[in-house]
Structures are given as structure tokens and as C-alpha cells.
């Protein structure tokens, strides 16, 4: 060190030390300025201009709303040529579809609608980070009058633009990610990857996590597009893994990001595979690209996540003299007497290890019976299988009038008519004192997604004569809803006020089935709604309609429609005498519901699906997911 001192004059060393001290003080002052300006808000409005010019330094943001309500504007500004990464650590607001409370992040300093990167309408305690496309970002935090603490905590930092074009990927295995991973990737980005396998018989397999791609059609792509060896594909978020096989040794991939908002981060694992044999010997290749063991095919479990392993299955021969102790036999304890003496349906309440075929009681004990929920028999020791079940006022529901018939007062106490700006628009079903379930396609677009425009009419048989009307406080559309094929077509609605107990004779919740509940081909169901009584009608029926249909075989359903997902099934009559179209298709579109009669005419009713597609003589319904039950309870 002493040798270095002798090499430079003291004036130079003084200059260097002064520059270092000045830089440190400048950064300290900037940090102090940010800390002093971002503090607890005491007024109704606040505007902050926050400048940052040091890379990868985290500057905290802490906004706390007061009882009088708060609207804060945070203008984040970095040096030209750099980007801003904003991380939301926690958010305490009221969940009401951003009507009174919200956190909105813009890709500019002006609140321009098409510049929205991200909008949060519900409280959150998990980290979410977002990246701008330039050096500017606007954060608007809004909180109305409060009775409990509301606020926003996070930080921002300045980052450099990321190189998102990769010339070549070397190696047999690895992973690629969206730009700025694990942050949400910004709109209008472009990524490119080139792969080359060492042998002509080896292709590239892409394993997506909670994502899938399918061939682009005339509707285009809502969330950006993929270009793989000159073929175009659209990307969608799903709740499971998928694998996409590319049968070529040379692979060129482009990802054009969405032009609208930031998207969730993508993680894609890649690896080579044998083009002539995508799956190892003894394995079955799913339509999702996954490989499962052959023994998992036709076992009654959706191992492929798209039911491709459960299609075109041959019903196994049933030997009533064989042992019934085989827990994974689908014909044992399925609610149907396959043996004359009913031996296959005995001892079904014995506790066994939990599997995909067993029913789980509230006390976490599993029993053999698959569809134990609301079948009129108490199977669980705690009675949870018969709690919260829907019961109808009418005991005689077997009417076979073609195209549907009028219902009786209180016959379907869970049926709801949803009115948009005063007009009957969709249907829903009561599942608790303040929650309804409906179809996600009813709430597409910013106008239809605004709960303030909706009214829920409960306890109603004739349109305009509802016994109870409530405003809608909140609409939750399934996060994976796909408007192109109606996958995950389900939504929850929270009422502004619960229906009173005094109306329990005409308003009742319908039983929400557990995840293990199965709908079987040939099972008799009912559909209800205010719709067309005849196919030539132009207007909806004023009186609530009902019609009996049956569940159609899933293989036939797939071959007929082609776009059926694992979360859908078909119902109707192949003879064409009755179908859901004549009940619910009209200019005043109402949702269609299949309510499964579990045991006999006086038994409890189970909510089985929501109408999402309609065609001649058949309807396609979206199955209710167990996640809905967890949200509403």
C-alpha cells in the first residue's frame, strides 16, 4: 500500500477521496430524501416525485392510509436508458374489484388506461415485482374510508435493460425464462432462442410450469404468441404442467409478449428426446405432452390433467365373486349396485387411506364411497357428508316435457337471476349466505366486470318478482379463465348483503360437491334457467324453466366438440328431444346448471356444472372445482 501512495501525488489522492465522499453523501442524501418523503400519509391526497439514479439500490415505499381515505401518486423516475423494478411486498386493502381500494401501476407518469402494467384489487402478502419498459413508472394507491389498517409496503430499484435474445442453447438440458425472471415480464417484449441437438433423431421438449401453448387460430392470441419453426401458437396459463414436443433437431423459438399488461413469470425447462419414442417404454403419452405409466391409463384418475388417459377406455369385466377389498377398483362403492346382491356397495363407510377415489370427511377420515356427499345417507362419523346440502320444496320433479317446463314456487331455491343495468343477463346459484357461483364468460370486459352494474335476484320464479334483491359487492373470475375455449369458465359473486333467514323457505344454498365427486355417463340431471321454451323463440321465458337431461359419455363428448377440457362434461339427450339450448339460449342469456339427483327424488341436490357452450341437442358444462368450496367457506 505504501508503494502505491508514493506513486501518486497527494492532490490526486485528495481528489479521489473527496469524490468518493461526495458520492457517498449524495447517495445518503438521496436515500434520506426518499425515506423522509415516503412516510405515513396524513392527508387525503399525496403526490411524490421520486428520483433514483443508482443501480440495484432498494428504495423503500411505505404508504399507510388514514381513516379519512387516501389517494397517493408516486412518480418513480430513473435515468434515461434504465428501467424501474417495483416490488410489492404487502398490500392491505378491501377486496371490492378496485371500486374503493386499489393499487395501480402504470408504464408512464400519466394514468393512461392502456399503460396499466398491473392492478391489484385484493389484499396480498406475497411478493410481486414488475418492470417498466422505460425509465418512468406511476404508482397510484387508493383507499376509501377505513375501519381497519390499510396500506402498501414495497420498494423500487433501478435496473439495466436485459438482453432477451439468445443465439444458441448448448447442452441437453436446461431452462429458459421470461425476461427479468422472477419478476412479471413487461409488455411488448421479444425473446428468441435457438436450439441444435447433436443428432437428427433428437428433438427438443419444452416443459412448461402452469402454462400451455396451442396452435393459433382465427381468434388470435390474447396473451402474446409463440413462433416455433415458423408455426404460430398461443399461450395460456393453466393449473398444471405441460410438455410441448418439437420433432426437429434444429429449433428456433420466438416469444412475442402481450401488448397490454405485464404477465406472470414463465419458467420453461428444455431437454432433448427421441423423436420416434417421446415416452419411455411402458409409458403413455398424454395430450398434454406428459408421460405417465401405462398402469395409470383408464384407472379413473385424471393423471394427464386433460383426461386423455381416461378416453376410449374399455369397461373392465366385473366378477361379483371376486374380492372387494381392492381399494382402487372403480366399481366398488361408486353408488351403483353392480352385483345383484349389492355386495360391491357394502362396507363403504369403513375408513381407509385417502386416495383420489375416496371421500374425505371434515375430520380428515376417508371412506371408500366416492360420492358420499348429500346422497341421503350419513357415512361420516361427524356427519359432514350430509351437511350444507340443497333441498327442494317440491318432491315431484320428474316432468318430461320437451324443451323444458315451468317450475313451481320454491322448487329451485338456489336459482338466481343476474341483472346487468336492469336487464336479465346471466344466471347464478346460491352456495352460501352471501356467495353465488356463475359463469366467467358473463363478466368479460371492463363494463361487465364492474360489480356496481349488477343486481342479484333471489327467490324468484317469475322475472321481475324477486323476493330478495341485492347489489353485488365483488366478482372473482377464475384466474385461468380462457375466453377462446371457455376453460375454467367459473366465477364467484359476493353479495353486498346476505339473504335473511326469514326467506329460507324460498332461498337455499345448493350443495357444493367435493373434489372426489364424479358425474357418470347416463346419470340423470336437471337444468334450470330463464331462457327459450322453443328453439324459434326470440325472447327469454318469464317463468323459470326446468328440463331433465343426462350426462353424455366423455369420449363421445370429446369426439363431438373437440375442444372439451378436463374441467368440462356434456349433458343432454342424443335423441334431440330435450337439451339445454331450449332452456337457456336467448338474447337474455342466463347460465345453465346441471343439478345431479344423487339417490332418489327426495334426496339432496348437488351442484354439478355451469353452462359454457351450447349446441344442438347437447350442452357443455363446466364442473365446479373444490377450490370454490374453500373460498366460500
Automatic annotation (TrEMBL):
It holds the Pfam family CUB. The lineage of its organism: Eukaryota, Metazoa, Chordata, Craniata, Vertebrata. GO terms for molecular function: serine-type endopeptidase activity. Keywords: Disulfide bond, Glycoprotein, Membrane, Transmembrane, Transmembrane helix. The chain crosses the membrane at residues 12-30. It comes from the Eukaryota. GO terms for biological process: proteolysis. This is Transmembrane serine protease 7. Residues 42-159, 160-273 form the CUB domain. InterPro entries: CUB_dom, LDL_receptor-like_sf, LDLR_class-A_CS, LDrepeatLR_classA_rpt, Peptidase_S1_PA, Peptidase_S1_PA_chymotrypsin, Sperma_CUB_dom_sf, Trypsin_dom. Disulfide bonds join 279-291, 286-304, 298-313, 333-348, 354-366, 374-389.
Amino acid at each position: 500500500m505504501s508503494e502505491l501512495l508514493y506513486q501518486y501525488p497527494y492532490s490526486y489522492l485528495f481528489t479521489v477521496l473527496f469524490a468518493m465522499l461526495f458520492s457517498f453523501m449524495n447517495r445518503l442524501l438521496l436515500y434520506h430524501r426518499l425515506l423522509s418523503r415516503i412516510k405515513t400519509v396524513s392527508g387525503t391526497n399525496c403526490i411524490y416525485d421520486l428520483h433514483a439514479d443508482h443501480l440495484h439500490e432498494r428504495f423503500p415505499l411505505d404508504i399507510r392510509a388514514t381513516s379519512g381515505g387516501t389517494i397517493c401518486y408516486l412518480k418513480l423516475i430513473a435515468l434515461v436508458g434504465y428501467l424501474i423494478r417495483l416490488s410489492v411486498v404487502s398490500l392491505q386493502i378491501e377486496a371490492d374489484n378496485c371500486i374503493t381500494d386499489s393499487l395501480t401501476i402504470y408504464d408512464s407518469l400519466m394514468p393512461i388506461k392502456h399503460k396499466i402494467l398491473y392492478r391489484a384489487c385484493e389484499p396480498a402478502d406475497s411478493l410481486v415485482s414488475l418492470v417498466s419498459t422505460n425509465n418512468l413508472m406511476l404508482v397510484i394507491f387508493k383507499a376509501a374510508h377505513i375501519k381497519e389498517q390499510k396500506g402498501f409496503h414495497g420498494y423500487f430499484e433501478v435496473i439495466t435493460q436485459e438482453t432477451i435474445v439468445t443465439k444458441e442453447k448448448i447442452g441437453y438440458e436446461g431452462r429458459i425464462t421470461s425476461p427479468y425472471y422472477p419478476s412479471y415480464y413487461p409488455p411488448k417484449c421479444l425473446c428468441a432462442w435457438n436450439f441444435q441437438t447433436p443428432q437428427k433423431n433428437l428433438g427438443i421438449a419444452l416443459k412448461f410450469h402452469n402454462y400451455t401453448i396451442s396452435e393459433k387460430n382465427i381468434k388470435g392470441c390474447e396473451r402474446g404468441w409463440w413462433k416455433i419453426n415458423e408455426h404460430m401458437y398461443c399461450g395460456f396459463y393453466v393449473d398444471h404442467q405441460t410438455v410441448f414436443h418439437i420433432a426437429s433437431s434444429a429449433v428456433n423459438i420466438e416469444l412475442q409478449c402481450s401488448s397490454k399488461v405485464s404477465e406472470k413469470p414463465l419458467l420453461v425447462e428444455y431437454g432433448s428426446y427421441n423423436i420416434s419414442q417421446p415416452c419411455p417404454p411402458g409409458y403413455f403419452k398424454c395430450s398434454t405432452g406428459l408421460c405417465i405409466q401405462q398402469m395409470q391409463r383408464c384407472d379413473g384418475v385424471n393423471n394427464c390433467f386433460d383426461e386423455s388417459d381416461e378416453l376410449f377406455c374399455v369397461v373392465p369385466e366385473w366378477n361379483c365373486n371376486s374380492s372387494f377389498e381392492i381399494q382402487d377398483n372403480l366399481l366398488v362403492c361408486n353408488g351403483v349396485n353392480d352385483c345383484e346382491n349389492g355386495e360391491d356397495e357394502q362396507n363403504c363407510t369403513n375408513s381407509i387411506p385417502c386416495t383420489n377415489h375416496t371421500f374425505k370427511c371434515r375430520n380428515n377420515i376417508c371412506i371408500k364411497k366416492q360420492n358420499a356427499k348429500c346422497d341421503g345417507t350419513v357415512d361420516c362419523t361427524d356427519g359432514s357428508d350430509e351437511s350444507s346440502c340443497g333441498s327442494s320444496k317440491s318432491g315431484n320433479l320428474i316432468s318430461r316435457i320437451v324443451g323444458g317446463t315451468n317450475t313451481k314456487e320454491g322448487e329451485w331455491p338456489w336459482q338466481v337471476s343476474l341483472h346487468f343495468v336492469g336487464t336479465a343477463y346471466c344466471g347464478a346459484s346460491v352456495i352460501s349466505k352471501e356467495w353465488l357461483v356463475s359463469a366467467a364468460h358473463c363478466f368479460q370486459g371492463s363494463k361487465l366486470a364492474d360489480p356496481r352494474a349488477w343486481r342479484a335476484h333471489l327467490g324468484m320464479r317469475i322475472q321481475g318478482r324477486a323476493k330478495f334483491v341485492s347489489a353485488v359487492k365483488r366478482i372473482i373470475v377464475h384466474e385461468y379463465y380462457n375466453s377462446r375455449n371457455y376453460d375454467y369458465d367459473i366465477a364467484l359473486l359476493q353479495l353486498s348483503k346476505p339473504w335473511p333467514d326469514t326467506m329460507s323457505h324460498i332461498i337455499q344454498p345448493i350443495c357444493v360437491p367435493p373434489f372426489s365427486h364424479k358425474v357418470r355417463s347416463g346419470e340423470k340431471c336437471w337444468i334450470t334457467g330463464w331462457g327459450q321454451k322453443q328453439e324459434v323463440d326470440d325472447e327469454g321465458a318469464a317463468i323459470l324453466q326446468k328440463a331433465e337431461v343426462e350426462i353424455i359419455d366423455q369420449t363421445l363428448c370429446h369426439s363431438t366438440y373437440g375442444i372439451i377440457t378436463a374441467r368440462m362434461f356434456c349433458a343432454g339427450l342424443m335423441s334431440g328431444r330435450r337439451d339445454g339450448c331450449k332452456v337457456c339460449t336467448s338474447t337474455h342469456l342466463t347460465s345453465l346448471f346441471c343439478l345431479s339427483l344423487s339417490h332418489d327424488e327426495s334426496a339432496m341436490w348437488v351442484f354439478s356444472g355451469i353452462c359454457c357452450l351450447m349446441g344442438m341437442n347437447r350442452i357443455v358444462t363446466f364442473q365446479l372445482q373444490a377450490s370454490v368450496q374453500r373460498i366460500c367457506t
